[in-house]
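Notes, p. 3: input format for complexes.
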Amino acid sequence: MIRHPHFETMPRAELEKLQLERLKKTVAYVYERVPFYRDSMQKLGVKPDDIQTLTDVANLPFTSKLDFRDNYPFGLTCVPQDEVVCVHASSGTTGKPVIAPYTQKDVDTWAELVARSLVCAGMTREDTLQNAYGYGMFTGGLGLHYGGKQLGATVVPASTGNTKRQLMMIQDLGTTAISCTPSYALILHETAQELDIDLYNGSLRLGILGAEPWSENMRADIENKLGITALSIYGLTEIMGPGVSMECPHKNGMHIWEDHFLAEIIDPVTGKTLPYGEQGELVITTLTKEAQPVLRFRTKDITRLITETCACGRTMARMVRITGRSDDMIRVRGVSVFPSQIESVLLTVEGIEPQYMIVVDRQNAFASDELEIWVEVSESIFSDKMAQMATLQIKLQRELDSVLGIKARIKLVEPRKLARTEGKAKRVVDRSELPQL
Ligand code: DLL
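Output follows (437 residues plus DLL):
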């Protein structure tokens, strides 16, 4: 099913016409209302009237997370406060969070785009969606809530945590779809096992998973453990929250809702625009937002765009699974790797759980000679026999070397010993923050 066939299957030429029209409007709108955009455009010598084709977007200035911080809280907002109906924020682990204000129209668009995403994943109003993203200022909770309601599904606002209660609700309410981070999906499975609950043969059929990078092997693992189809939903606070793009059951990239967002791929080092199909940093310009439109936001997310029509019939560009964020990249003896690539290799080795921690020395600016990775061993394989453990260790080291070309020191950890997070998983840990095991 396609919720908005007129837009979602629009011939690309027509879609680009619509995007250009909306881009021109957005640029004129922010130029007039936000000194930050006016100044940064003037510095580059561009005026709203200079945007004549879609490729002219490359002449506009970038916006970064730092610009949001510098203009905290409402310096990038285009409307008076009485038009702002709600405010969300990023988790802001370092410094001030990013503030995202919405007008009523923005909230309506958001709800409609999340509903479009859920339909894209294969949901209908017959489904019961248990929403285990955190409610509060994080966009995951209310974003999925608005979208599920808009679709007419039965939304269970479970929020994060209280896993036993979540499992009870899944069983008692016959929950068919769960929205949460991929790492929380694994916590659900682990707790279900402890309680002897068979999730695999239960009512759950679909996972709307996102908010953190995850690998294809992690998908397979989640699908096998929970007995669901696990699909990726993408979004970010600065742009709107979840529902910027979504995978369909063909699992061939996340459809970007291009009638509302203009996507570009740039070289993260030079900032030059790259052609479709090449891997680089995703840059997004909003096309319909009122409260806080954004020009050329540098997401730091590394991906590639596919513009061929998908087997589902949608013409909108797809972004392939995010390899990682450019600021999460680790360099080991000159080789660059993302945590998700390491995850992907770890999960090919039997006896390993999808629970791992990559240890870095921050003073070393993420560059080290040898990487240290702590990996949990499966219950079935965990043994006191030194020889068996040593074989597993060597196998992992060899695999990482042959697939990624990196040398890693592996520390095998007892089952369930690494800390679990109910929100976004923290895979890269500084040596100074290491837990005592
Ligand atoms: O995580 C919004 C969201 C909520 C998305 C619920 C999906 C589901 P932020 O906290 O601002 O917003 O974090 C945005 O999370 O730039 C990516 O690095 C990462 N991310 C989000 N979705 C995915 C995904 C929310 N499906 C940042 N795959 C983004 C990989 C993702 N990474």
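The mean pLDDT is 94.
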